[in-house]
Structures are given as structure tokens and as C-alpha cells.
Amino acid sequence: ITFEDFHKIVKLTKTGQVSLVIYDKEMAFTDVAIDGVGRIYACGYGMFGGGRTIKIYTAGGKEIRKIESARNLFGRVANSNIHELKVSVKGEIFARTERYVLHYSPNGEYVDLWEGESDPRLYPDDSKNTIYMIVDDKVYSYAGKDTAKIGDLSGLGRIYSISSGKNGELRGITEIRNGF
Q1: Which of 71, 84, 120, 147 has fewest C-beta within 10 Å?
Q2: What H or E segment, with its residue span, contains residue 169?
Q3: 169-176: which pairs have CB atoms within 8 A and are 24 or more residues apart?
Q4: Which residues contact 18 (CB under 8 A, 6 or more apart)?
Q5: Which pLDDT tens digit goes with each residue over 113-171?
Q6: Residues contacting 77, CB < 8 A, separation 6+
Q7: How far, in Å, are 54, 95, 135, 140 from residue 104 at the CA level?
């Protein structure tokens, strides 16, 4: 379990004991994720870069990489700060801005992006090595520019969350207190 407190990331054991504190005076953390081998990924506001920075730490808290999200992609976008960060079990990095989802390799190299409607939310499914995205009442399966809409739940209201079941079906909660 981890949680962030502005310039600190605190890692807790299953019993709630503090096992690691990462302090970074350059960055006020806004989101944190952990990959399958325990590396810690954090995004937040840096000294000069706004909220476009991703830092990667070893499981022991040593900084190993810093990614400045692809600034040249956002010349026409007013708000390109990272709002959400997800990492697949294999270490692929997905960063959500107001309208984009950026995909980076485990080495921090830019792979591709998806430009969509406002405020996509990310839900990784490690069993399928897939990232699902929710935009209002629609569900997408991430594939960069080939991202496909796989569900349209018009009439059920905004989707609040999804997960995948053991048989691969998607389950979720919608605004009108329904499930799917």
C-alpha cells in the first residue's frame, strides 16, 4: 500500500507499518502506481514542468528514471497536466491528461497516444495486459490510435468504475445504480 503526501510517498506493510518513505523536494506528488516487480511510479508537479513529470523509483525508493511527458504533443491543449497514472504488470506506463492517454514503454520511451473526449478514466486488466478506459457511458480498450469502443451503455448513465471477472467479462457500476 502506498499513499502520497505532497513531497512524500509512504509505503506501508500489510499491517500498516511504514516500510519506506520517499521524499522528493522537486515534486509534489499527485498519483502513484506500482508495477509487478515493485517499482514505484509517481507523477506530480515539478519545479518547472507543471504536472507533466513521471518519476520511476526502485522498490527500495531510489530514483531510476524521470520522464517529462511529451510536451510537443500539447501545443494546442491548455491543460496537459497528468491527472492519473496506471502501470501494467509488465511496466507499461499510461498517463491520463484532460483529453489524452499517453503510453510509454517500460523504459520510459513514448509509444503512442489516444486523443478522445474529455476526462477518460483508466482501468488496467493485468490478466489481459489491457487498459480499459471509461468516458461517460462508453468503454474503450486501449490500442493507441486504434483504440476501439467496446461498449456503449447509453441510457444507464455515467459509468463510475469497471473491473474484469475471471471469465473475462467486464463488470461495472453506473450512475443509475445499475450494474453490468
Answers
A1: 71
A2: none
A3: 170/132, 170/139, 172/134, 172/139, 174/137
A4: 10, 11, 12
A5: 888 766 788 888 777 777 888 887 788 888 877 888 888 877 777 777 777 777 767 77
A6: 97, 98, 99, 100
A7: 11, 8, 21, 18
